[in-house]
Amino acid sequence: MRTNPGSVFGLDMDESSGCFRRLFVAFHGCLYGFQFCRPLLFVDGTFLKGRYKGNLLATTSKDGNQGVFPLAFAIVDAENQDNWMWFLSQLLKAVGSSRRLTFVTDRQHGLLDALSVVFPNAHHAYCLNHLKRNLIEKLVGFRTNYKLSLIKILVKCAYVSTVASFQHYMEKLRRIVGNGRVDSMLDGLQNDKWANAFFKGKRYGEMSSNAAEYYNNWIGGARELPITCMVDMIRVQIMAQLSNRRAESKRWTTKLCPVMEKKLVDSLELAKSCDVIVANDTVLEVHSSISFYVDIDCFRELYKESVYPVLSSERFDFDDAGSSIIKPPITKTQPGLNKKKRIPSKVLRSIRNKLYCMKIYATTNKYTNNQKNNHNNNNKKKSNNNINNNNHFHHNNQKKIIPKMLEFPRLVLIIEELTDDFCLKFDPLSWSK
């Protein structure tokens, strides 16, 4: 706060134990820049991989060049309604209520109710990509081409701008599917949250929450760090991004941001459909929608402020802190063993050493019927005295790959011997168990 005045910093701790509960961070440089972004926010959460686990909640926007602009984030113990309520309340303090915002989410648990309480006047839009995934989950057992055709109809329902067109495609979707589970999913969706024909706010063409998922990948390395190191690493990434984009914008010579300039050039043919009314030889009235937020001057103003360095944890003065030191969060022990620290048994280590130069493929029906018949006929010709020999693979003197096959109940092993330095024994009875 000393090096970044104007930032919003919220800390919540357990009063009885003095342990950490949750933390909210919004730097002044991000809050100032958001004034020059479109009033559109992408909200999402992701899990942490560090010692204390937990979740990271984040909200992002987009600048005039369609770049992801980080606004605020929070570290909480779980992704539930209470934490979403607290996160959005802190966000409301940071951004205020002067602009009517539009939130794009993937309908996380607890977020829907929290948004309607904290931001009652804001518009809420569902991520179309998540709706498509939900539809695919309801179509288990159907062919892939059939699923894709239904997804295309769902996308048309979301993009059409008239109610009549929406009802046409929706009836077509229900008629083709004829599935009660799909009907229940569609009935549970509020049309004004995902369909353009009913949406009352402005989505600026953003039909998915990919910006939030991009942010989660962008900070991927920080998710494995302790809380203080994680916050500092995210701060450094934001600081570098603001500085790089500020320097990049100084080299632009166009009136609009490059991405939007290219879109404008590519849309010249579509502009012929605009309604033009002539007032005189020099004044024309054109009916079309424009956006101030893609102007290059607005973009430069967006990245005008900076996020400044802070003291590292090694330089903190804890001598006078006393009882203000916060203990680590209380976490529940996760079930099962940690995969990263699991020590293999002696038997497993010996098997890995023996299979170092071999490839084992577990498969079914990867050989032709003729090979099956030949294999069965050969087994019938062998006497009972030779059965045990079938379970022992002797090495071959030739230095070449020799595929061999054993058929056990419910399992077929195709083994390629790559060396002749050893031989393995397989017990069919143990495999069948």
Task: Describe the protein in words.
The protein is globular and about 65 Å long. It has three domains: 1-127 and 208-270 and 292-320, no CATH class; 128-197; 347-432, no CATH class. It is of the alpha+beta class. The protein has a seven-stranded mixed β-sheet, sandwiched between helices. A three-stranded antiparallel β-sheet has the order 10-12-11. Strands 8-9 form a two-stranded antiparallel sheet. The longest helix has 23 residues, at 227-249. Helix content is 37%, strand content 17%. The termini are far apart. Helix 3 (111-118) links the parallel strand 6 and strand 7 (123-126). It has helices spanning 28-34, 81-95, 111-118, 128-137, 144-159, 163-177, 180-188, 191-194, 210-218, 227-249, 258-266, 296-302, 346-354, 369-381, 428-432, and strands spanning 8-13, 20-26, 40-47, 55-62, 68-76, 102-105, 123-126, 275-278, 284-287, 358-363, 402-408, 411-417. Helix 4 runs antiparallel to helix 5. The chain has 15 helices and twelve strands.
Structural class: alpha+beta
Q: Uncertain regions: pLDDT < 50 for 5+ in a row? A: 356-369, 383-433
- Taking all Cα atoms into account, the compactness measure Rg is 31 Å
Share in β-strands: 15-25%
How would you characterize the largest beta sheet?
7 strands, mixed
Distance between the termini: 64 Å
The tally of beta strands, per DSSP, is 12
> How is the largest sheet built, in terms of strand order?
1-2-5-4-3-6-7
